[in-house]
Amino acid sequence: MKPTSRTTTVTFPAELARIGVVRRWVGAQLPELGLRLDDPLVDDVQLVMSEIAANAVVHGCDGGRSDVELTAALRLSPTGVLRMSVADPGPGRPESRKAGEGATSGRGLLLVAGVVDRFGVDEGPDGKVVWAELDLPEAARPVPASVAGRQVESQVVVLCTGAAVRVGRPRSAVGVRPGQQPELDRIPAA
User: How far is CA 20 from CA 12, 48, 54, 98, 101, in A?
Assistant: First the structure.
């Protein structure tokens, strides 16, 4: 059986108080996708989802609207790419800001850019989807069920997580050549 992508979604009201719900949802869903909760990638995924969900509330919904439902999604491809996304109704694109020394916000996109391999925005008629992707280490990539030693009857991705070790390495933003500083005034569209 050929491995397929696996996607899981959750909707939540566009309120900052709900960002913790998104973090907990991520923690609950990652084992379903094959990542162990002690894997260092879990913290990265929770950070990224928290940041893009908070941006969707603050900027996509003008500071929050309990009457608007946002959708967060995790999708794992058979090639080991984990896509994290949040859809919001706002027309604008995320923009990086220069946060002052004592500022308590304004650094989210820089945090995201430092963790992920790619990120961008897909625009649609009802708003946009801000997404970020991580290329999972080889040990965490999906493998055919026969290799993992399990019989799978549905379209479920089976992962070998083994002893995955995350090597700290700088990651560049989309469109940045090695050796260049990423320009985060605007996130490039994919």
Answer: 11, 13, 10, 25, 26
Measured between alpha carbons, how far is 147 from 105 in angstroms, rounded to an integer?
46
Q: Where are the beta strands (DSSP E) in the chain?
A: 6-14, 65-76, 81-88, 118-124, 127-135, 142-143, 158-159
Report pLDDT for 4. Answer: 75
Query: Per residue in 100-119, pLDDT tens?
Result: 777 666 677 888 888 999 99
Integer distance in angstroms from the first to the last C-alpha of the chain?
Answer: 30
The structural domains of the chain, with segments of one domain joined by +, span 6-159
What average pLDDT does this structure show over 73-96? 88
pLDDT digits (tens, 9 = 90+) for 126-174: 899 999 999 988 765 544 433 343 433 333 332 333 333 333 333 434 4
β-strand partners of 12: 70
CATH architecture of 6-159: 2-Layer Sandwich (3.30)
